[in-house]
């Protein structure tokens, strides 16, 4: 019975060691801006309710609520980038 040929190289060659990609953290501005937008939006809505929709911008009346909620939503959108 014929013999099989021997292998010329090892059966498994591990891949070359490559440095791992550095995990990126948060940009320095992300957390302060995120918290600032959330707090500013909350304050905007509270002031609007307490003043009967006359402040922070007198001419906008109930649109002040939309501005406050837009600030809060922008803050929540930034939370999705937080790592």
From TrEMBL:
NCBIfam families: PRK02251.2-1. The chain crosses the membrane at residues 29-51, 63-82. One of its GO terms (biological process) is cell division. The keyword Membrane applies. Keywords: Cell cycle, Cell division, Cell membrane, Membrane, Transmembrane, Transmembrane helix. Pfam families: CrgA (PF06781). It comes from Actinotalea lenta. This is Cell division protein CrgA. Its main location: membrane. Residues 1-24 are annotated as: Disordered. Residues 1-11 have a biased composition (Basic residues). It is found in: Cell membrane. It is a multi-pass membrane protein. Belongs to the CrgA family. InterPro entries: CrgA (IPR009619). Involved in cell division.
């Amino acid at each position: 019975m014929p013999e099989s040929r021997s292998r010329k190289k090892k059966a498994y060659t591990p891949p070359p060691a490559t440095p791992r990609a550095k995990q990126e953290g948060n940009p320095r501005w992300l957390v302060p801006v995120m918290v600032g937008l959330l707090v500013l939006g909350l304050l905007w809505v509270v002031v609007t309710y307490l003043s009967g929709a006359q402040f922070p911008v007198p001419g906008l009346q109930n649109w002040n609520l939309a501005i406050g909620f837009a600030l809060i939503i922008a803050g929540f959108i930034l939370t999705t980038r937080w790592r």
